[in-house]
Amino acid sequence: MQKIKLGKTGFEASKLGFGAMHLPRVSPEESERLINKAIDMGINYFDTARAYQDSEEKLSRVIPKRRNECIITTRSHNWKMGIDVYIKDFETSLKTLKVERIDFYGLHSINKKDELDMVMGKHLEFLKKAKEKGDIGHILISGHNHLVMAEAVKTGEFDMVFFPFNVIEKEPLETLINEANKRNVVTAVMKPLGGGVIPDIPLALRFFLDYDVDLIVPGIASLRELEENFKIISENRKLTKEELLTLEKDVESLGKDFCRRCSYCQPCPSNIMIPFVHGIHQKCYGKPKDENIEYMLNTMAKRLLPSLKTCSECGQCEEKCPYELPTKQRIKDLIAMVAQ
Questions:
Q1: Which CATH superfamily is domain 3-246 in?
Q2: Distance between CA atoms of 261 and 309, rounded to whole angstroms?
Q3: pTM, whole model, 2 decimals?
Q4: Contact predicate 193/251, CB 8 Å
Q5: What are the DSSP E strand ranges found in 51-100?
Q6: Rounded distance, CA 334 to CA 340, Å?
Q7: Which of 8, 12, 106, 171 could cross-link to 146 by cystine, CB 3.0-4.6 Å?
Q8: Is the pLDDT of residue 17 over 80?
Q9: 149 within 8 A of 119, measured Cβ to Cβ
Q10: Which of 192, 239, 236, 188 is nearest to 213 (CA)?
Q11: Mean per-residue pLDDT for 282-292?
Q12: Domain extent listing, the chain
């Protein structure tokens, strides 16, 4: 597996990273086998977050035993709950992962300019002190709004930026990727398969080989996914013009109706997490129920159900959405799918 120098950090990582967000659907024993297999194959970059249920715990079954072979990244979305909660999340991650230092730690899901402004105070001060103490190696920021991520990179305070980029979501090409590369900030790509909606996985992953990004980090939950993704990235075959046209044609309809999770629609008066509504809808609506869809409906969708039922259909979300997505109808669809 090709190794990439990660900016100014001194690390070298496998081009293909291991996204742990889907590990909660895998048994502890199977996750242990999967993580060990990934390391044996040459993958050394592992990404998780406090929000990913028991993924940190499952990584801790392997990472401490093979610490010198792994780069571990995690982050917290609880910055919004205040600095004390954020610090507690960090301490929990450090304890749960059973490591003395987290290689990259930071801020999860910063999607608006006012959110970025908020965390540039006490939160950033805490991260800098943790870095000085050696509790973390480097500071990262992640988010779904490419404009906000570009502004974060320009501050010079972050060593890594983690953002969605794929054949549907090409917006990072406008500014973000160039700004990060100019400052030697590590670029890590989340949602390389569009959250699971891009049908041709080989073409979707080969798409990135034409762009100057460091890490490609799909969520991995099976040996089949691991081996398929590894083979595709290891072969390092760029798309032909004909293949790119095929890929773009395959996702053409999705592009018009695809939620970028920019969070312009938030906050919702009923406290509905609208980007999650669209993500689940895109993955599940009108599709035959397989194991993945059953999991999303029985876990993520059911957690949203109480708030979905309080929707007043005020329409504020649709008015604020730059992509004119039919949020009210998708909320109704999701309630119906969970009830089936």
A1: NADP-dependent oxidoreductase domain (3.20.20.100)
A2: 21
A3: 0.88
A4: no
A5: 71-76
A6: 10
A7: 171
A8: yes
A9: no
A10: 188
A11: 84
A12: 3-246, 274-339
